[in-house]
Write a structure and sequence with these properties.
alpha+beta, 1 helix, 32% strand, 13% helix, three-stranded antiparallel sheet, Rieske_2Fe-2S, disulfide bond, Rieske Iron-sulfur Protein, globular
Length: 142
């Protein structure tokens, strides 16, 4: 092992390089949709079957991936099905279904099942709607 000063990378370079490797994956989970950043467009393949209406609990919902984008499909009351982009408008984290609303696990924002509107901040914008229709027993895009 050569311990001659100047042989190999400096300790600071190795530490900084290691930090960079850890930072990228951690930021990827929450970033990308903050103010001024481009948001991924919602799914657009009209007519694509997402799931059966019976797979969406009444008074709740289901988060799924459609065309590489997270979507939350909800049934706030029997027979009413809606969908929203499942990305928190505050910091870009993927939301999840809570007890009676759509929750962001990152910073505590909550959104209404009925319309995706903000119930609790720090988010200040509603979840963007994703157009869906019920065709027979299925929820489809469009």
């Amino acid at each position: 092992m050569d311990i001659t000063p100047g042989a190999g990378p400096a300790r600071r370079s190795v530490l900084l390089a290691g930090t960079g490797l850890l930072t990228v994956p951690l930021l990827a989970g929450c970033g990308g949709d903050g103010p001024g950043e481009a948001a991924a467009p919602p799914p657009s393949a009209a007519g694509t079957r997402l799931l059966a209406v019976s797979d969406v609990p009444v008074g709740s919902g289901v988060v799924l991936e459609v065309e590489g984008a997270p979507v939350v499909v909800v049934q706030p009351e029997a027979g009413t099905v809606r969908a929203f982009r499942a990305v928190c408008t505050h910091a870009g984290c993927t939301v999840q279904i809570g007890r009676a609303e759509i929750d962001c696990p990152c910073h505590g924002s909550a959104f209404a099942l009925a319309d995706g509107g903000v119930v609790t901040g720090p988010a200040s914008e509603p979840l963007p709607p994703v157009p869906v229709t019920v065709v027979g027993e299925d929820v489809v895009l469009g």
